[in-house]
Amino acid sequence: LRLARSFARMMRLIRDQGIDIINTHRSEDHSFGLLAKYLSGIKLVNTRGDQRRIKAHYFSGWRYRQTDALILTCRQQLEDNRRVFANVEGRVHIIHGSVDEDHFRPHALPSQTAQKYDLPAEKTIFAMVGRLSRVKDQVRFVDTAIALIRQRQSDDLHFLVAGKDVDLSQAELLQRVRDNGMEDHFTFLAQVDDIADVINLVDVGVILSIESETISRVLLEFMYLAKPVIATNVNAVGEIVVPGATGDRIPIQDSPALLSAMRHFADDHERRQRCGREAANVYAQSYSEASFLRRYETVFNRVMKETR
Description:
Elements: H1 2-17, E1 21-24, H2 27-40, E2 43-48, H3 58-65, E3 69-72, H4 75-80, E4 92-94, H5 110-117, E5 124-129, H6 138-152, E6 157-162, H7 170-179, E7 186-189, H8 195-201, E8 204-207, H9 217-224, E9 229-232, H10 235-240, E10 247-250, H11 255-267, H12 269-287, H13 289-305
Parallel strand pairs: 1-2, 2-3, 3-4, 5-6, 5-8, 6-7, 8-9, 9-10
Helix pairs in contact: 5-8, 6-11, 9-12, 12-13
C-alpha cells in the first residue's frame, strides 16, 4: 500500500509540474518509471551504476528496450551485459561520475590538517580513502607499504588509511602494522567529515579494489585535487586512469606491481608533481561537474528531440 501511495504521489507530481522526463537510478525505480511511462507518456531514462550483471531473460531485455535512453557509469557495464543490451546499444550512453565541486573543497591549509591529525606533512604520504572492506583490499596496501619501507630503508614515507569499518576492521590493520614494528609509519582514521582537507594533504592516492568502482568517486576526488593515483584496472577506475600520465594502473591483487608503482612515486618527487597536475587537467577536461552536466543535457535533449 505504501508503494501504491508513493507511486500515486509521483504521478500527481508529474502531472502538476509538467515533467517531461524521469531519470531512474535504482532497479526498483526502473519498474516504477516504466509504469509511469505507459500511464502518462513521459520519457524514461535509466541510469545504471550497479556492477552486478543483469539476468539475461526476456523481461530484462524487454524492459530496457522500452527506455528512451540508458546511461551507464562505465563501459564495462555494457561489456558485461551485451546480451541484455543487444537491441538498445544505439540508446546507450557512457557517463562517468564527477565531484560535487560546490561542497567538496578544502577548507584548511595542509599544515593545519597535518597538525589536526598528527600527520607528518614533510613526508611523502600515500593514502587509501574509503570504507574498510575486503573488496577494497586495504590489507594488501598495508602489507606492501611495510615491504616498501623495508626495501628503501628510509624514514621519508608515511601511509594513511581513512574509512569506517565494514567487513574489515581498523584494529585488524593496526595489528598487522604492530606485528611488524611499523606504527610510526602509519595513521588510521575513522570516517572523517573533512575528507577534502585530508586528500589535499596527501601526495599519492591508492585504489586497490578487486571489484565495485563503477563510479569511483574517490578517484575523481583525488584527481580534482591534483593527486596522482595508483589504481587497479577495474571498472570505471581502469577507464579513467591514464597510465604514466595521471598515475599508474596495475592488475588486481598484484602485490609486486603495487610495490613497483609505489616505489616509483616514492623515489621521484617530480613525477608525483607532474602526474598530479595532469590528473587535475584530465579531470577538468573530461570529468568536471560542468562536463557531467553537459553530457546529461545532451542525452535529455536527444530524447526530447526524437519525440518531436
